[in-house]
Amino acid sequence: MAERSRINRMQAVVLRRRDYNDADRILTVFTPNLGKLDLIAKGIRKTSSRKAGHLELFTHVSILVAQARTWDIITEAVAVESFRHLRGDLGGISRASYVAELIDVFGEASDDSTRLWDMLLLALRELDAAEVDPDLLLRWFEIHLLSLAGFQPELFHCLGCGEDLQPVDNFLSFQAGGIYCPSCGETLNGVERISPDVLKILRHLQRSTWGAVRGLTIRPAILQAVESILYRYLVTVLERQLKSADFVRRLQRVN
Ligand SMILES: [Zn+2]
Q1: How far is the CA of 191 from the centre of ligand 1 (A)?
Q2: What is the pLDDT of residues 186-210, one digit of tens each?
Q3: How close is the Cα of 163 to the center of ligand 1, in Å?
Q4: Quick one: pLDDT at residue 207?
Q5: Composition of the chain by helix, strand, coil, percent to 5
Q6: How far is the CA of 187 from the centre of ligand 1 (A)?
Q7: Cα–Cα distances in Å, from 253 out to 11, 33, 190, 241, 250?
Q8: How far apart are CA 9 and CA 77, in angstroms?
Q9: What pLDDT sits at residue 33?
Q10: What is the distance between the alpha carbons of residues 241 and 16, in angstroms, rounded to a whole number?
């Protein structure tokens, strides 16, 4: 196996930080090629630290990382995009935190860090520009994240008989991760009705690029139903597969 060079330059977004020792901080960052990493920023809490302003949460930063025995060390940091606009708004901060937490918990389940990286930057840029419906953005983000992490819900074929789903009321199962046709779903426990209008939007979000979705206007009642479904599906996946009970508790507090 080739040895990594001692110092690497990389792009990163800061997902999470915690204080360490007197003046240091451990940062959890997401990178395009290596996915999620824990790195140490030494001396960052001293007022003289030149790195501090570049390593705020959600900042897209270019860093130099030196290999070390415990945590690799950030030796230099320069902000590439600081997303100043979204930081000035509580709604922007809470949405960016949500996006960062989702990348944090789902990042390990996905082996395509480059696509996750692209989605993360896309979401932060759109939240910062504040030109689109942020709820629509988060729904698109959630459903694509689920696919990348291997939890894509089945929205086109019945989970029971495999037939194409028809534009009628079908049955949704969070546990099974998809939809049953009326004849298969009617007798099942733990399923709920899903209307053809809601299913249509879920499918559209799942198979479309953000560019094809961002200009859509969706009736508030439909978007709310989509939000409720994705929220409960995320909770199911987080609890059962990812065992991320802490994140679920935080989610339940804001919803
Ligand atoms: Zn069926």
Answers
A1: 13
A2: 999 999 999 999 999 999 999 999 9
A3: 6
A4: 97
A5: 40, 25, 35
A6: 11
A7: 32, 33, 24, 21, 5
A8: 10
A9: 93
A10: 22
Please give the DSSP secondary-structure letter assigned to residue 152. -
- C-alpha 158 – ligand 1 centre gap (Å): 5
In the three-class reduction of DSSP (H, G, I as helix; E, B as strand; rest coil), residue 38 is classed as: strand
State the distance from the centre of ligand 1 to the C-alpha of 253, rounded, in angstroms.
36
Computed over every residue of the chain, the mean pLDDT equals 92
Residue 201 near residue 226 (C-beta atoms within 8 A): yes
Give me the helices (H) in the chain, please.
84-87, 90-106, 113-129, 134-148, 182-185, 196-207, 210-213, 220-240, 245-254
* Surrounding residues of ion ligand 1, Cβ less than 5 A: 158, 160-161, 181, 184
Mean pLDDT of 209-223: 96
Structure tokens at 239: 């609890």
Q: Which domains does the chain have, with CATH numbers?
A: 7-81 (2.40.50.140), 149-255 (no CATH)
For residue 20, is pLDDT > 90?
yes
